Amino acid sequence: MERNKLIIPINNKYRIASDSNQWIVQSKRTRNGSLEWEARYFYSTFRMALGSLGELMVRESKAETLAEALIDVENITTLLSQALTPSIEPSPDEAEEDHDGE
Fold first, then answer.
1. Residue 48 reports pLDDT greater than 70
2. CB–CB of 53/80 below 8 Å?
3. With the C-alpha atoms ordered 89, 94, 100, 102, is the resulting torsion angle positive or negative?
4. Around Cβ 14, how many Cβ atoms within 10 Å?
5. What is the 3-state secondary structure (H, E, C) of the chain?
6. 3-class state of residue 38 by DSSP
7. pLDDT the model gives residue 62
8. How is residue 86 annotated by DSSP?
9. pLDDT tens track for 55-99
10. Is the pLDDT confidence value at 2 over 80?
11. Do residues 23 and 48 lie in contact, with contact meaning Cβ atoms separated by under 8 Å?
């Protein structure tokens, strides 16, 4: 039986996935010449996974001063918010209908 799996892309380096038991922070890596997603951290709630990923991204930032770190925190917060904001785009057929009606 295949498990349901939700995948939330965050950026080119990270995503959050789930299975029926947990939330998983995954990172992209190259293995045997091909890109794959590697499970790195496991959490019982989405909130814990998201918070932990945000903290990880701040720790991995190249900030050397408090001011730089605060800017990185703001940028990471924005990135995570955008990743969680649904975007609804018209299908190519709907977009074409909009142009035809003008």
1. yes
2. yes
3. negative
4. 21
5. CCCCCCEEECCCCEEEEECCCCEEEEEEEEECCEEEEEEEEEECCHHHHHHHHHHHHHHCCCCCCHHHHHHHHHHHHHHHHHHHCCCCCCCHHHHHHHHHCC
6. strand
7. 95
8. -
9. 999 999 999 999 999 999 999 999 999 888 876 666 666 555 555
10. no
11. yes
Gyration radius (Cα) of the chain, Å: 18
Model confidence pLDDT, tens digit, residues 24-44 = 999 999 989 999 999 999 999
Instruction: Show the tokens assigned to 55.
Output: 């903290």
- Report whether 37 contacts 28 (CB < 8 A): yes
State the amino acid at position 9 in one-letter form: P
Q: Are 50 and 56 in contact (CB under 8 A)?
A: no
Phi, psi of 52 (to 5 degrees): -65, -40
Residue matched to tokens 């295949």: 2
Structure tokens at 54: 């945000």
Question: Residue 1's pLDDT is what?
Answer: 44
